[in-house]
Design brief:
GO terms for molecular function: arachidonate epoxygenase activity; heme binding; iron ion binding; oxidoreductase activity, acting on paired donors, with incorporation or reduction of molecular oxygen, reduced flavin or flavoprotein as one donor, and incorporation of one atom of oxygen. By secondary structure, the chain is an alpha+beta fold. Helix content is about 50%, strand content about 10%. It has a domain of about 325 residues: Cytochrome p450 (Orthogonal Bundle). Strands 1-2-7-4-3 form a five-stranded mixed β-sheet, with helices on both faces. A two-stranded antiparallel sheet has the order 5-6. A two-stranded antiparallel ribbon has the order 8-11.
Length: about 500
């Protein structure tokens, strides 16, 4: 064998060893990662997820790959946590590792890591306690905000009465009512229902949520670096979000011009006062960007989450008039037709309480939850999840967990009632998430759902021109947010 042939054989042997080692090492490392479906080049597993019901699609995947599995958003590997036990383990028992907020490009273009909902961990540590304390100072969770909701319930009932029993889409009426509650805290005032600026704000909010939850929103989340340069409906998202941001900036400037440090009128005033106190600290988190992002977060969440839940709830009651009738019976028994509901009445109304819980469970408002990001490598449920991995603790998989709910795909108030008809809690009821990042407006939301729903049903019977068996209560979209089908109803005075 001459030298050139020997050299070729030697190089081939070295190359074979290198390829064997590379394949072995890659396979070995991959085996330590959670399992998952094989991704396609460039698009990853995008086509394997049902954009109209992503939570359900991922639950189906978990039947094959287990409660912890990986999928690819384009070239990015993300990890899905599926089921009550696994989500609880991550968000409560291993919270320090999963505590960083994962990126959401569609929101990051406006929030940029500031505020609360989409803030990085460092910002969140400062903004959440301040926001929680300030919201409480302005009545959240206290008698003051209960009276504010009762007042707004009266205005909403009068708006429905003025519809003269004609069918209409309740979307904007419900958005106006829930938004006015949070506006009274954040901006110090409510809007009239015929205010054109208010209508524009709610339209921008509603449309942005719809687009973010559409396939276009998913594409932006996966391919943001490319999509922001391409034409399409996704470009409207940033326009709507920036329009809402501009409104908050305008309100902040108005407050600055009339600020009295000894007499804060609303959340914005309190933040401005804190900014003044902290202005000597160059590293302070109390600055204008955080103020605008925090107010926008609270305004957005306090409006859309509750109005969408109520809208979904009324659609469900149209589907099941027998459930509505039982609600009427309990309301009449406890309150009659004249006494306005208050929060203390909730403990005397177990069926109503169970129906409200079941509405929240069934409508599954945030199917994937807001994403988290691992702050270090972690061994979790027998797998390695690398540092910096985006993780989705699926709330859909918790609220529809068959080990925690007897008939998760059916609307069944019995999920929250014992054999005696008394209300019973369920650990898997976590529509507001759980752990350190649980929604700071949870108490306000529970109060609003009860007072608005009971006030409306005390005064009206719901009517649809569509037969109950033909009413579709599956979500129209279920990606970032679960959005109900568009429908019309009439409110018949009782």
């Amino acid at each position: 064998m001459d030298a050139s042939v020997a050299q070729t054989v030697f190089l081939a042997a070295c190359l074979s060893c290198f390829l064997f080692f590379f394949i072995w090492r890659t396979t070995y490392q991959r085996d330590k990662l959670p399992p998952g479906p094989i991704p396609l080049p460039i698009i990853g597993n995008l086509m394997q997820m049902n954009s109209k019901n992503i939570g359900k699609a991922l639950m189906k995947m978990s039947e094959k790959y287990g409660p912890v599995f990986r999928i690819y958003f384009g070239s990015e590997m993300v990890v899905i946590l599926n089921g009550y036990e696994v989500v609880k383990e991550a968000l409560i028992n291993q919270a320090e590792v999963f505590n960083e907020r994962g990126k959401m490009p569609v929101f990051d273009q406006v929030f940029q890591g500031f505020g609360i909902s989409f803030a990085n961990e460092e910002n969140w540590k400062w903004m959440r306690p301040f926001s929680l304390m300030t919201l409480k100072n302005f009545g959240m969770g206290k008698k003051g905000i209960e009276e504010r909701i009762q007042e707004e319930s009266y205005f909403l009932v009068e708006q429905f009465r003025n519809t003269k029993e004609l069918p209409f889409d309740p979307t904007y009426f419900l958005s106006q009512a829930t938004s006015n509650v949070i506006c009274s805290i954040v901006f110090g005032n409510r809007f009239e229902y015929d205010d054109s600026e208010f209508h524009l704000l709610l339209k921008m909010m509603n449309e942005s949520i719809r687009l973010i939850s559409s396939f276009w929103g998913q594409l932006y989340d996966v391919f943001s670096s490319i999509m922001k340069y391409l034409p399409g409906p996704h470009n409207e998202i940033s326009q709507y979000l920036k329009g809402l941001e501009e409104y908050v900036v305008k309100k902040v400037k108005q407050n600055q011009e009339t600020l009295d440090s000894n007499n804060p009128r609303d959340f914005i005033d309190s933040f401005l006062i804190k900014m003044e106190e902290e202005k000597q600290h160059s590293s302070s988190h109390f600055h204008m960007k955080n103020l605008v992002a925090t107010v926008l977060s609270i305004f957005f969440a306090g409006t859309e989450t509750m109005s969408t839940t109520l809208r979904y709830g009324f659609l469900i009651l149209l589907k099941y008039p027998e459930i509505e009738e039982k609600l009427h019976e309990e309301i009449d028994h406890v309150l009659g037709r004249e006494n306005s509901p208050c929060l203390q009445d909730r403990s005397k109304m177990p069926y109503t309480n169970a129906v409200i819980h079941e509405i929240q469970r069934f409508c599954d408002l945030l199917p994937l939850n807001l994403p988290r990001e691992t702050i270090r490598d972690i061994q979790f449920q027998g797998y390695t999840i690398p540092k910096g991995t985006r993780v989705f603790p699926s709330l859909h998989s918790v609220l529809w967990d068959p080990t925690k709910f007897s008939s998760p795909e059916s609307f069944n108030p019995g999920h929250f009632l014992d054999e005696n008809g008394s209300f019973k809690k369920n650990d898997a009821f976590m529509p507001f998430s759980t752990g350190k990042h649980i929604c700071l407006g949870e108490g306000l939301a529970r109060m609003e759902l009860f007072l608005f729903l009971v006030s409306i049903l005390q005064n009206f019977t719901l009517k649809s021109d569509v037969h109950p068996k033909d009413i579709d209560i599956s979500p129209a979209l279920s990606s970032f947010v679960s959005i109900p089908q568009i429908y019309k109803l009439s409110f018949l005075p009782r």
